[in-house]
Design brief:
The protein folds into 2 domains: about 120 residues, 2-Layer Sandwich (Alpha-Beta Plaits); about 130 residues, Alpha-Beta Plaits (2-Layer Sandwich), CATH 3.30.70. Helices cover about 30% and strands about 30% of the residues. A hairpin with a 2-residue loop joins strand 11 and strand 12. The longest helix has 17 residues. By secondary structure, it is α+β, with helices and mostly antiparallel strands.
Length: about 300
């Protein structure tokens, strides 16, 4: 919170609670990390696909990928798919466009013999476990995008297998940053690999400004995590984080109604101008979380694919 002396201080009591209950406000950090629980699972699964013939897809296929993933999940857990459809707010999963597709104004051309990558993430135990079962344990023979079947040649949630893959839980992400010991960097660099946009005061904002990025991340964390973070992280982003470097391009994403939504693609570096350990740790933790949660609007259908990059 902002104190009378004008310095961002660790919320009192601390703004992380371990674990959350429905009646308590966030309480102090524990002296040691709890044992990880597999039920609080985050996964990022990268599926490798190939085509047997040259095909031309639209530039953005995130919506088609989302439909294909729901179809696959329906075979594993129909009730889960119904809950995803009926839920309000951010979805508990994200789906990418083709990660390494080369696009131009005509679309994305896929060539035979070239591996292409699709990514899906899960933010809750039920969704993550269903995705692992549907894609990794029992991979499909093909994933169909807009009536084009793409042959599946592999799938992994192991970061060693692909730079966008990974698995974690909310406690482990929090423990790496929040528990005492060592200094915490004041700077973090983010990659926005697909068009990233936000809603701001009823308008669309295609720039990843600090309060929009970290406000989006903390809201998604608090929606799906059993550990509560201070929602004041959005205001900390507005008042105490500076966008110090960026390399961004604007990219259009066609909507269902034919309209275009503009998003930013590229990298951005954020630096804290102040704040104590809690706020710096939260910044770093949410940057790690972005790999799984995505950032901004329409993350279930291809937008907002993001991850933290190591600063040189």
């Amino acid at each position: 919170m902002w104190c009378a002396r004008g310095r961002w201080k660790d919320p009192s009591p601390a703004a992380l609670k371990w674990p959350r209950s429905s009646t308590c406000k966030p309480c102090a950090l524990p002296p040691a990390a709890p044992e990880p629980r597999t039920t609080e699972m985050l996964v990022s699964i990268v599926t490798t696909v190939e085509t047997d013939t040259e095909i031309l897809l639209p530039r953005n296929v995130g919506r088609a990928h989302y439909a294909a993933i729901l179809q696959r999940l329906h075979a594993v857990n129909p009730d889960l798919v119904a809950a995803i459809h009926e839920g309000d707010g951010p979805k508990p999963l994200t789906c990418s466009d083709i990660l390494n597709g080369r696009s131009n104004r005509d679309g994305t051309r896929l060539e035979p013999g070239t591996p292409y990558y699709l990514r899906v993430t899960g933010l809750t135990p039920d969704v993550s476990q269903a995705l692992l079962k549907a894609l990794v344990e029992k991979p499909p023979a093909a994933i169909e995008l807009l009536h084009h079947p793409l042959r599946v040649t592999g799938a992994t949630a192991d970061a060693a297998g692909h730079g966008w893959a990974g698995a974690a839980n909310y406690e482990s992400l929090a423990a790496r940053q929040m528990l005492p010991g060592g200094s915490i960097p004041k700077q973090v660099t983010m990659q926005f690999a697909s068009p990233t946009a936000f809603k701001q005061a009823g308008r669309q904002m295609p720039l990843p400004l600090p309060d929009l990025v970290f406000g989006s991340l903390v809201e998604r964390w608090n929606r799906f995590s059993p550990l509560a973070l201070s929602p004041e992280m959005r205001r900390f982003g507005a008042e105490m984080l500076a966008l110090t470097r960026y390399r961004l391009q604007s990219r259009p994403v066609q909507q269902k109604n034919g309209a275009l939504r503009i998003g930013g693609v590229g990298t951005a570096t954020y630096r804290a101008l102040g704040g104590d350990r809690y706020w710096l740790a939260t910044m770093q933790m949410l940057a790690e979380f972005a790999r799984y949660s995505g950032v901004g609007v329409q993350t279930a259908t291809g937008m907002g694919q993001a991850r933290r990059l190591e600063d040189n």
